[in-house]
Amino acid sequence: MSSLFEEIREPVAGDVPVRRVSITVNGVRRTADVEPRLLLAHLLRQGLGLTGTHTGCDTSNCGACTVLFDGKAIKSCTMLAVQADGHEVTTVEGLAGPSELHPIQEGFKDEHGLQCGFCTPGMMLAAKALLDENPNPTEDEVRWALSGNLCRCTGYQNIVKSVLWAAKKLQSQSAS
Amino acid sequence: MTQALDEIKIGGLGSSRKRVEDNRFIRGRGNYVDDIVLPGMLHMEILRSPLAHARIRSIDTSKAWEIPGVRLVLTGEMMATRNLAWMPTLSYDTQAVLATDKVRFQGQEVACVVADDPYIAKDACEAIVVDYEPLPVIVNPTQAMAEGAPLIRDDKENQHDNVVFDWQVGDKDATDRAFEQADLVSKLDLHYPRSHPSPIECCGSIADFNRATQKLTVYMTTQAPHIIRAAVALVAELPEHMIRIVSPDLGGGFGNKVPVYPGYVMSILASILTERPVKWIEDKTGNLISTGFGRDIYLHGELALRRDGKILGVRMHTTSDHGAFFSDAQPSKFKIGLMHSAFSCYDVPAAHLTARGTYTNKAPGGVAYRCSFRVTEAMFFQERMMQAAANDLGMDQAEFRRRNFVRDDDFPHRTPFGFLTDSGQYGKCLDVGLAAIGYADFLKQKEEATKHGRLLGIGISTMTEPLGAGNSREYDILGIKMFDSAELRVHMTGKAILRTGAKTQGQGHETTWAQIVAHELGIPAEDVTVEEGDTDTAPFGMGTYASRSTPVAGAAVAMVARKVRAKARKLAAHLLEVSEEDIEWELGRFYVRSSPDRGVTIQECAMAAYSNMPDGMEPGLENVAYYDPPNLTWPFGCYIATVEVDPQTGVWDVLNVVAVDDCGVRINPMIVEGQIMGGLTEAYAMASMQFITFDTQGNCIGSNYMDYLLPTAWETPGYELHEVVTPSPHHPIGAKGVGECATVGGPAAFVNAVMDAIKDTGVRNIDMPLLPDRVYEALTQRHDVSGAPPVRTDD
Amino acid sequence: MYPSRFRYEAPRSIDDAIALLRQGAGEAKVLAGGQSLVPLLKLRFAAPELLVDINNLPGLDYHRADPDGTIRIGALCRHAELERSTILATRQPTMAAAAPLIADPVVRNRGTLVGSLCHADPQGDWASVVTALGGHVVAQGANGRRNIPVAQFVTGPFQNVLAYDEIAVEAVIPAPKGTVAGGYLKLERRVGDFATAGTAVALEMSGAVVTRAGIALTGVGGSTIDAAEAAQALVGGPLTADSIAHAADLAAQAAQPRSDHRGSADYKRHIVRTFVERILTRVQPSTERAA
Predict the structure, then answer these.
(1) Other beta carbons within 10 Å of B579
(2) Which pick of B116, B526, B621, B752 has the fewest CB atoms within 10 Å?
(3) C179-290: CATH class
(4) Cα→Cα distances B584→A88, B13, B81, Å
C-alpha cells in the first residue's frame, strides 16, 4: 500500500504499540501496521476496504464474518489481525475469477439462496470450504457444514439448494 | 394479428426472474451502512445502563475526556440543553434519548462517546462513572398493576400508575348473549413471549452535517426513510429540505428498523457538534436489549360453541407489556394494533376484545415483527383457541375449521370486529394442505405409533390476515397517511428508472418492481433500474413493513406505469397518424385497431416523447403516482406441521411442513416462495427456541446469540409449498401481501402439532417456546406450562 | 466487539512462551484457538495485559495414537481434526461422538481440545469426555513437564491448576486395556448452543465384563462432574438392564444442576439419567455379541 500523501496523525499518548503484519489476501500480499487488539474482520473491512466480510454479532455465533484462513473457514471476528501475519485469507471478493463468477456465487443467484445478502458472503465461504473437502455432499452434509452460519431471511432451504447446484456444476466442470 | 411480447420472456408478471440485486451481494459488493466510509469520519459508542430501574445520582465523564482520540462525550444533561434528551415516540408517548432522571430498563442509553475509532470510543465508555441508586424493578404486567407498584413513568404528568391504555372493540352485549346461548365455552390462557426481529445486521447510522450548506445527510438502517426524515425534522428542529436520509442496503429488517432510535439522534447531534461525519454501529447486545422487540402479550380467550361445532361468539382479553416507553411502531388507530383481526377467516356472529397495556422496566419499542402490528399474536391466539375448542368438542380439528370458515361466496364479509375481508378460497386451501400432508394416512400412522409408545402429532393453522396498511382513513403514522408512491421515468431509448417510497431489505424490489413495469408497459424488466431509500430522490412513501410493499407501493408502480402508458398512447396516435380512440394496446406495442400490422413499440413512443412529440404536448415520458389503497389485502395461509415428541426427553422433531399460501397474483413466484420459507423459519424459531425473558432484577436473558437462539440450517425443517390464487379484487394487479403470512400463521401449526402429540395427557397448553424441558414437564406432570420460561435460581 | 488494549507476543519456541508468561506475572493469557478467549476479549469480560499467542509454536498440532494405544492430542490440534480423525473413529468412540458436537463447524476449525480443557467452562464438552476417559493434561513450565489428571486440572468454573508460567501442551488419553466402548450425548437447543446437559461415558471391556468405566457430566454443575460412583458401579460385571439403570441413577444423583432458562434442575438431572442409559444401552448389544 503506498500513497502520495499520508497524514501524520497526532501521536496518541500512551504509546500504542503497533505491529507490522503481512497477509496474503485474495492472492495479493498486503502489509499493514495494526494494534494487536484489532480483529481480523475489522482489518479486512476498514483497513483493506474489503467490506464484503460482514460482522453480525459479538459472540462468534452468526458467521457473517466467515473467511477462508489457509483454506479453512474461520470466523474473522474471532481472530486477531496480528494472528493472520504470514497466512492466506480469502474473502468473498476473492471468490470469483477475474471474469466469471464462482459456481457457488452462480448457485446462490440461480436458486435464490439469498435475500438481504448480509449472511451471504460468509455462507458462500463456508460452502466453499465444504465443497473443497467434499465435492459431492448430501443435503444433510450441507446443512451440517453451514450450521455455524446464521441466515434470518431464507429459511436455509434455498441456500442448501444453491450449494448442491454449485457442487453439481463444479463436478461437471472438473469432468469436462 | 398480435405481436404482443411474451410476458415471461421479458420478465413480467409471473416470471421467476433471477434477482438483480444478487449481482452485487454475491460479489460482496453490497453497500450496507457500516460499509460506508466518509472522509474525517468519527465513531460513536453508547454506554448503557446495567440496571433496569435506578435513579441516576451522577455521571462523571472526566476520565473519558482524557483518553486520547476522544472527541465528544454526550450525556442526557447535555442533550437536554438542546432539548434532545427526550423524543416523541410513534405511539404519542415520549422516550429518553439519553437518560437524565433515571434509567428505566437494562440497556438504556446513558452516555455516548465519539472518538477517532470505535475501539477508543469503547475504552472511553468504560471510563465513564455513573452513580446509580437502584429502584424496585417491574418485569411483567402483573407486577406493574399490583397495588403500590413503583411508578415507572414518574416523568409524565397525570400518570399515576403503570397502565399505558385500556381499550376495547366489538359488541359486548351481543357477545354476552352469544355466550348465554352456548352449549359449551372453551377457554384458554396464552402467552406470546417477548421476541426480537433480530436482523443479522444491527442498527446504525452515519450522520454528516455540513456546516457550510447546513445540510444534514444521514445514512441509516431504516425501513422507512421518509418517515425518519419527518421525525428528524420534528425532533432536531431542522428544516425538512435540509435533511437527507439515505437507507442503503439493509441486512434484514423484519420491523426492527422502523422506529427512530436514540443512537440515530445522538449521532446526528454529535455530527452537528463536531462538524464531522459520525458513524454509530450498534453491537448485537445493544440491538437485542434496547431496540424494538415484538409480542410480549397475554391472552385470556373464550369461544362460545354450539355442540355441532358452530362458533357463536368470541371473547378476548389481552394484557400487553410495552416496556418503559410506549413506542410501539404501529400505524393504526387501534391501541392494540390489529389484534382484532383475529377470527377474520371464520364466520363468527359476535366478538368482544378488551386490551390493557402496561409499562414495565423492560426495553421499549414494540414493533410489528414480520407482521402487521399484533396480527401475529392475533392469529396465534386464534389458532390455539381453535385447536383447544376442537378438542373440547371432540371434533376433528380440520373439520371444525372447515365448518366455521367464511364461504367463498360470502365476500365481501364483515368480520366480527369490523374488518371487511374481500376474497378467498379458505376451504380449498385447507383441502390442498390436507392432501399434501396426507392427513388421513397420518392420523392412521399416529394411531399405530401410539401403540408403540411413540408420540406423533399434527398441527393445523389457517388464517387470513390484513396486510398492506393503509387505507388512509384508518392508518397513519404521526398523522401522515399510509399511502405509498412510485415515480417512473422512461428514457428516450425506452429504458427506464423507477423510484418508490418503499425500501427493500431483502424482498427483492429491484427485481419485482421492474416486473410490474414490464407487465404494464412491455419494457423488458432488465431495462428498468429500480432505486429506493434516498429521500432526496425517491418520492415520499411510508416504507416497507407490514407486508405493505406489494399492496401499496407495488400498486403505485402499476398505476404510474399506466399513467405513462396513457401518455405513450397519445404519442402512438401521433406517430401512427390516427386518433387515440383507434389505438389498441398489446404488451409492448400500440397498434391501429383496423390495421393491426401498423403499430409502434413502447420504445418508439419513448423516443418520440423526446424527439417527435405532437404540438402542444409536454416533452418527456415520466410520471409519479401516489396510491392510497381502498382496503387492506387479505391473503390466506394454511400451515400444517407434523412432529414426533420424544417422551423421554420432551425433544420434538418436525417431520413435515406443508404451506398453502393464497397471496393472490404472484409477481415473482421464486421470490414469493423465498419469503414463505423465511417466514416459516421464524415461525419455527418462535415455537421452538427464540425468546427473550428477564430475571426478577430486570436482567435481560437473551441479550446475545448465545442466549437468543436463531435456528441454523441443521435444525430448520424442510418445507413443501403449495399455492391457491384468489386475486385481490382491488389491487391493480390482483396481488396481496405475503412476506409475513408464514411468520404469522406458522407458530400455531408447530405448537398445535406438539399439543396434538401429547393430547392424551389432557394438557391444554404449553406456552412458547416449546423447549424440551417444558414439553417434558407437561408430559410428566400433566399440567399446563404457562408464561415465559422462568429464569430460575432455586437452589 | 472491540477488545481492550493488550500486549501481544507470538513466540516461536515453547521456552520463549514460558519466559513471556513468567514476565506477565499472572496478567498474561495464552491464546491458542481463541474461540472462547477472543469472544471474552470482545465483550471485555477478559482484559489481560499480555496475550501470548502459541499458534506459532512448532510441533503442537498433532493428535496420534502411540503403539500401546495411548492417544495424545497436542495443544494446537483443532476440533475439526478430531472430528475427521480416523484414529478416533476407529479407537475412541467417546471422543469420536463428542467431536462433531463441539460449538459449530466454523468454530471447530480453529478451537482446540487442550484450550477447551484450560478454559474450564462447566459447559465444556471435552472436559467431560477426557474426565470419563481418565485422561491427563501435560503442563510444561520452566522446570519441565508434569502430568495433571484432568479431574484435578479443573478447580472450578473457568479455573485450572496451571501455574501462571505453565502451558498445557498436550492432553493424554491412557491406553485402554481390552476393548473400548462409550459415547457422548448432549442436549442442545440448536447447533452451537451450550449443553442443557451432556454426558460422556467411556468403558473398557474384557469380553462382556466392564473392566473400567468413566462417566462425566457437562453443564450440570459448577464445573465438570466426575460421576465416579456411577461409573464404578458398572465395573466388574456385564452391562445389564439393571446395572445400566443403577448407573444412570447414580449419575443423575451426582449431577448438581441449577435451574435456568435451559431447563429446571430436575429436568437436567433427568436428562443425565436418560442419556447415560441411552449410551450404555447402545453399547450393550455389541458387548453381548462380543461375549
Answers:
(1) 8
(2) B526
(3) alpha beta
(4) 63, 21, 65
Beta-carbon contacts of A122 under 8 Å, excluding residues fewer than 6 positions away, are A53, A54, A62, A63, A64, A65, A66, A67, A149
Q: Does C164 touch chain B (CB under 8 A)?
A: no
Task: Give per-residue pLDDT as tens, B70-129.
Answer: 999 999 999 999 999 999 998 889 999 999 999 999 999 999 999 999 999 999 999 999
A14 is a domain residue: no
CATH numeric code, B22-30+483-627: 3.30.365.10
pLDDT, tens digit, 9 for 90 and up, residues B475-516 = 888 888 899 999 999 999 999 999 999 999 999 999 999 999
* Residue B200 to residue A92, Cβ atoms within 8 A: no
Chosen for mutation from C6, C106, C108, C109 (greatest number of chain A CBs closer than 10 Å) is C106
**Mind telling me how many Å the CA of C220 is from chain A's nearest CA?**
23
The reply to whether A2 falls in a domain is no
Q: Domain segments of chain C: what residues? A: 7-53, 63-118+126-173, 179-290
* Topology adopted by domain C7-53: 3.30.43
> What is the signed CA dihedral for B676, B677, B679, B682, rounded to 10 degrees?
170
CB contact under 8 Å between B284 and A59, yes or no, is: yes
How high is the pLDDT of residue C290?
46
Q: Distances from the Cα of B564 to the Cαs of B257, B490, B512, B571, C286, in angstroms?
A: 33, 8, 18, 11, 77
User: Taking CB atoms and an 8 Å cutoff, what residues of chain C touch A62?
Assistant: none
Interface contact flag, A37 C7, Cβ < 8 Å = no
- Domain of residue A155: give its range: 103-175
Chain B: nearest CA to C192, how far in angstroms? 8
Give the alpha-carbon dihedral of C186, C188, C191, C194, to 10 degrees: -90
| CATH 3.90.1170.50, domain B33-135+202-249+257-290, yes or no | yes
Q: Alpha carbon B304 to chain centroid distance? A: 32
Is the Cβ pair B34, A45 closer than 8 Å? yes
CATH number at residue A58: 3.10.20.30
Within 8 A of C106 by CB-CB distance, chain A residues are 63, 66, 73-75, 126, 148-149
Contacts of C270 in chain B (CB under 8 A): 776
For residue C234, which of C250, C219, C220 has the smallest C-alpha distance?
C250
Question: Closest-CA residue in chain A for B200?
Answer: A56
- The highest-level CATH class for domain B372-468+631-781 is alpha beta
Domains in chain B: boundaries: 22-30+483-627, 33-135+202-249+257-290, 372-468+631-781
CATH number for A152: 1.10.150.120
Give CA–CA dist B42/A153, Å, rounded: 31
Q: In chain B, whose CA is at the least distance from the CA of A49?
A: B35
Residue A12 lies inside a defined structural domain of this protein = no
Q: Do B713 and A109 touch (CB under 8 A)?
A: no
Nearest CA in chain A to C108: A74
A87 and A127 belong to one structural domain: no
Q: A107 and A161: one domain?
A: yes
Residue contact C187–B648, C-beta within 8 A: no
pLDDT tens digits, one per residue of B558-601: 999 999 999 999 999 999 999 999 999 999 999 999 999 999 99
- C189 close contact with B: CB closer than 8 A: yes
C63-118+126-173: CATH topology is 3.30.465
Is there a single domain that holds both residue A90 and residue A107?
A: no
Last residue of a domain, one of A68, A94, A120: A94
By C-alpha distance, which of A74, A141, A62 is closest to A164? A141
Work out the minimum CA distance from B282 to partner chain C, whole angstroms: 10
**What percentage of chain B reaches a pLDDT higher than 70?**
99
> Which among C2, C187, C193 has the least Cβ separation from residue B649?
C187
Q: Choose among C6, C38, C80: nearest Cβ to A79.
A: C38
Domain count, chain A: 2
Please state, in angstroms and rounded to a whole number, the distance separating the CA atoms of residues B745 and B742.
5
Give phi and psi for B739, each to the nearest 5: -55, -25
ipTM of the complex in this document: 0.97
CA A25 to chain B, closest CA, distance in angstroms equals 15
